[in-house]
Design goal:
Elements: H1 5-31, E1 34-40, H2 43-51, E2 56-64, H3 73-78, E3 84-91, H4 98-108, E4 116-117, E5 120-121, E6 127-131, H5 134-150, E7 160-162, E8 166-168
Parallel strand pairs: 6-7
Antiparallel strand pairs: 1-3, 1-6, 2-3, 2-8, 4-5
Length: 171
């Protein structure tokens, strides 16, 4: 072997090993990620609110909760599909907990308004929590109970339901 090539080969080998370790670490992190789904009015607003949180890795706007597969924005906002505008959130529970996401959700919506949020009116803009696991459902119900206890004079109308198919919104 040419003496000058040996250091270069060692350097190349070390670089390849570093990239391989990085890829393995990324795969391990991906295995620990969780998904949450919240409906809180206009999905772009909800998406923007959650994007700012440390530990939230991805937010995707879409529709869920209804009976029309692959409904369009026009169909959903016209009503009758049963869908709400919602955001699917991928998060790292080692950096942000589902309880933290719930607290953020309750602070950014009006859970007493069954008709929508702010100027966005109609069933598609009403609030809901879509639990993706039984543990999430229990946590969401506990958080709603705490909210009710803190505001006994308010009628909290946000339902907590099992997640149903989520349809990504068109651009």
């Amino acid at each position: 072997m040419i003496p000058m090539m040996k250091p270069r080969l060692v350097g190349l080998l070390l670089t390849v090993m570093a990239f391989a370790q990085s890829a393995l670490a990324a795969d391990a992190d991906t295995a620990d990620l969780e998904t949450a789904i919240f409906a809180g009015g206009c999905f772009w607003c909800v998406e923007s609110d959650f994007d700012k949180l440390d530990g939230v890795l991805e937010t995707v706007s879409g529709y869920t909760g209804g009976h029309v597969p692959n409904a369009s924005y026009k169909q959903v906002t016209a009503g009758g599909t049963g869908h709400r505008e919602a955001v699917k959130i991928t998060f790292n529970p080692a950096r942000i907990s589902y309880d933290d996401l719930l607290r953020h959700f309750w602070r950014t919506v009006d859970p007493t308004d069954a008709g929508g949020q702010l100027c966005d009116r109609g069933e598609s803009y009403s609030t809901a929590i879509y639990a993706t696991t039984s543990a999430q459902k229990q946590q969401a119900e506990a958080s709603r109970s705490a909210l009710i206890a803190d505001h006994p004079d308010k009628d909290i109308v946000t339902p907590i339901v099992d997640a149903s198919p989520f349809y990504v919104a068109e651009d």
